[in-house]
């Protein structure tokens, strides 16, 4: 099998003469799959109930004739103008209560029954007509669920929210208890009093807001499931939808990933961040973890600039190759782009494509062809796995709960802390999975718990078992503080697992000056707390003697607990010490900025991907072998005979 290579193909933006050239260029670049139909609803159904598919028959026939597989989309992310004009109540209302209008994309209300019915109708028409077309290899449902409309505050959404809450809590007593409505006279006496949380004069009820976020995420998963059920009537080919693992924490992907046949994701580099390749690593590791380690699809990334970041820089020469191979190294078996041909009109005309505005005499096109050839030469890597003995926890309700405005400090977010600890693992060269607190941790030796403030009793017990059984955890401040209803665990922090970390804190002291010196020479940032060891050994302190880093033996395992967020160098030292306790090591010895990841087949064949993100030539040392990796280049080192 060849590694999948391609991108979103939007032929409707171009005259027919261009289609023939597209086929020729796709073959030249080694493209073997394209996603089609994503934004074609208005052409498929120009007026409600009138369908025009002849043009698209031609597109699919052309692809089949050229040996290019279609990843066929349902176009339900962008309803045509007639939809909003006919069903204005099905258009989304934003968090400020503003009724939005047509004129962009993804403006529908995910809870709207009219929207759902219309989406299922067009999905069914497409499935009926094309399920057996020889070009069709898999299904691409919708596009980036919730990218612009995760939370829509319509009457329809309120009605469904009430039903969802009844299912969750059974009755109003359950709801009132979970949300702590005894506070501020908020007790509900009828379901009609419960609304989507539109703006309030002051701090809203945190339980209400978190449940609304849970509901909104759940609704989108239902929308996917409904489309999938329709397609399944006609086709047994795999179905997916493109997640946004690096950037969009508004949909619970642990829940959503259970609905797809294969995980796919989109990733865009933050062009202004010189360390953006670290976020790429996270997005890729996360996609792999959502599929329990199985190879996944990189459905979209960019050949060069995007158009939505303020200052949209073009990628440096060879940067796109490094990006693509970094995804491949971390388990993607399909490397695809948004989009095949850069548009000359419309909202995304300043977004790069595989065929740029400049045409084929260009850096982009030469690299696109080079990448196609490189992937072809790596065909035997397909299907191999990335092994990780380390996991870093991510939980959506935790992140949502920390968006609440009234908290000990608003100087960090769950995502920000996660990113800092993921980056430390990246710098250490330790390959990590992303795991959910309640997930199976048995295959890991080392688990990082980055500001998992909201931790269910089940999640706390899971971590307790993990450490008790011999695992090592590194726990940051503001972890294990509240349960799944956002109710604080009493008796001293971190109440979910004081016994595991061997520490008890009575109060938090966010750092007014932003910094606390550490006895070891580094410093802490943002946070400090009045922690007392309750069994743990103190490894580092603030200058006044308050513990900063504590280590506790619990059962057969070890818990490292921090009471501040250390500066990066100090954090690197702590991660290194915890990794030693855990018995995990870097994949290879490599200079700073050189990424090394291993992919291996069960039969022992393995490859080391060495990606040099620096301007200097580097040498990587792995299992006694020295591998030269020129500046800015990727070297794929075959380890087996
Ligand atoms: C994605 C989307 C694509 C395109 C791309 C631009 O979010 O799925 O359709 O808009 O971003 O970066």
TrEMBL record:
Q: Report the domain of life of the source organism.
A: Bacteria
Q: Where is the Glycoside hydrolase family 42 N-terminal domain?
A: 8-378
One of this protein's Pfam families, by short name? Glyco_hydro_42M
Keyword Amino-acid biosynthesis on entry: no
Q: So what EC number does this one have?
A: 3.2.1.23
Enumerate the transmembrane spans.
none
Beta-galactosidase trimerisation domain mapped to chain residues: 388-584
What keywords were assigned to this record? Glycosidase, Hydrolase
Q: Does the keyword Transmembrane apply?
A: no
Swiss-Prot/TrEMBL catalytic activity: Hydrolysis of terminal non-reducing beta-D-galactose residues in beta-D-galactosides
Similarity-based family: Belongs to the glycosyl hydrolase 42 family.
PANTHER family associated with the record? BETA-GALACTOSIDASE GANA (PTHR36447)
Put simply, this protein is called: Beta-galactosidase
